[in-house]
Design brief:
The radius of gyration is 19 Å and the shape is globular. The chain starts with 11 loop residues before the first helix and ends with a strand. The longest helix has 11 residues. The chain is mainly beta. Strands 1, 2, 3, 4, 5, 6, 7, 8, 9, 10, 11, 12 and 13 form a 13-stranded antiparallel beta sheet that branches. The protein has one domain: Beta Barrel (Outer membrane phospholipase (ompla), Chain C), CATH 2.40.230. The chain has two helices and 13 strands.
Length: 272
């Protein structure tokens, strides 16, 4: 699956609606930072696939620093509670659709639609250095996943993906490393890895996925602001060793690597 921050624009209107009430119906223009850029991605079709897709396209650059709504390099979220030690928010994640005809393991099966995950997250700030250049925290998100082709939407289960994250700021650069396990229910695993009897072939056996462990994930990001330019880079590796669906005939390799890079020009800065 492809999780990518540049798609924040897809749910920007939802976040604006949420924050409107909190800010008396008015989004404060002085808190916006807007720009445009170009991004490139190399990603597997889905976790465990041995086929990849590459993308290069113009992307929006959006930052908003409101009291409850935040849109920045960490993604987009709406805070219900925000203190120095504990934060509670609603966060989202996305995955891009896959045409099964483009994937050897899935030929003849239903396409994988776009995935939208939404749900609460608790973040515990475990440590912060005195100069605030180093932070260590624990994130605990629980999200409900929906598959959609923007004409039809279905609930495809729950995903639980706690993670430890270390963030470090140095000479204008910001880096972050996140690591954590994942679990999901049977409905979610079936959506990606089940092979129904009518999809059985001579090279693809029947398979019914179960709920449980979904593997682990390591994510590394690096970014820097150069006056009106912003550079961002991310890499992610999904390790499927021990996953409850590892025996699915749709699993073609035990790990999935993805990477992305973006360069944006900022034409509207926030007013102070």
């Amino acid at each position: 699956m492809l999780y990518i921050k540049v798609t924040s624009i897809l749910y920007l209107f939802l976040m604006i609606a949420l924050v409107s009430a909190e800010e008396n119906g008015v989004i404060q223009q002085s808190k916006w930072e807007l720009g445009v850029g170009v991004g490139g991605l190399s990603v597997p079709h889905y976790r465990g696939s041995d086929q990849r897709a590459q993308y290069a396209a113009p992307i929006p650059y959006v930052r908003y620093n409101g009291k409850r709504l935040k849109i920045d390099k960490e993604g987009s979220r709406f805070y219900f509670y925000n203190s120095e030690k504990i934060k509670v928010d609603v966060s989202l994640a996305f995955a891009i659709a896959v045409d099964s005809d483009d994937n050897r393991a899935r030929i003849g099966m239903s396409d994988l639609d776009h995935i939208i995950e939404i749900g609460p997250r608790i973040i515990f700030n475990l440590y912060e250095s005195e100069d605030k250049n180093f932070r260590f925290r624990l994130g605990v998100p629980l999200r409900t996943a929906y598959a959609t082709d923007f004409g039809h939407t279905q609930n495809i289960g729950l995903v639980f993906s706690p993670y430890l994250q270390a963030r470090y700021f140095f000479t204008g650069w910001e880096s972050a490393i996140s690591l954590g396990p994942m679990w999901a229910d049977e409905t979610f695993h079936d959506y990606f890895y089940e092979v129904a009897p009518h999809n059985v072939t001579t090279t693809r056996s029947s398979y019914n996925a179960k709920a449980g462990y979904s593997g682990s994930r390591l994510t590394v990001t690096l970014s820097k602001r150069f006056d009106k330019m912003h550079f961002g880079l991310f890499t992610r590796y999904d390790d499927l060793k021990g996953a409850s669906f590892i025996d699915s005939p749709l699993i073609k390799q035990g790990g999935s690597f993805m990477a992305g890079v973006a360069l944006s020009w900022v034409f509207k800065k926030p007013k102070h």
